[in-house]
Automatic annotation (TrEMBL):
Name of the protein in its database record: TetR family transcriptional regulator
Biased composition annotated in UniProt, kind: Basic residues: 10-30
UniProt-annotated stretches for the region Disordered: 1-46
Species per Swiss-Prot/TrEMBL record: Virgisporangium ochraceum
Alphabetized InterPro entries for the sequence: Tet_transcr_reg_TetR-rel_C_sf
């Protein structure tokens, strides 16, 4: 352990998932690594937030808190986008946001186990179908 700012207060090493989260910027916007089709990268192990939730069983652990915050922010972003797509139908917007959030999680998990050529490869087409159906 080092010290912060040259003082004698010990610096705790943050879990990797929290360091990556901070690197994403203050607005928490998703980058290329947050898109489901990225499962083709060598060493891809899935969503860092899902992995952190699995590794740290304590619901009060900072990594679990970061994972919850990320999932909440992702769902909120999807919900705002869905509301713009179907402003006259709040129930349809909420359903679409939930469906897309589950699709993203499933694509990450599936790509880890079955690779980019597995069922996760259909994720983008499925997302388009969900959006098209909601917009009708």
């Amino acid at each position: 352990m080092g010290t912060e700012g040259g003082g004698d207060r010990p610096r705790r090493r943050r879990p990797a998932v929290l360091r990556r989260r901070r690197a994403r910027g203050r607005h928490g916007r998703a980058g290329p690594r947050d898109r489901p089709g990225q499962g083709h990268r060598p060493g891809f192990r899935g969503c860092a937030f899902n992995n952190a939730s699995i590794e740290y069983a304590d619901p009060d652990h900072p990594a679990r808190s970061a994972a919850r915050d990320y999932r909440t922010a992702l769902h909120d972003r999807l919900h705002r986008l869905a509301e713009r797509l179907v402003p006259a139908n709040p129930a349809a917007a909420a359903a679409l946001a939930g469906q897309l959030a589950v699709l993203i999680d499933g694509a990450y998990t599936n790509a880890v186990h079955l690779g980019p050529g597995g069922p996760a490869a259909t994720g983008l087409a499925l997302a388009h179908e969900l959006v098209d159906r909601a917009a009708r």
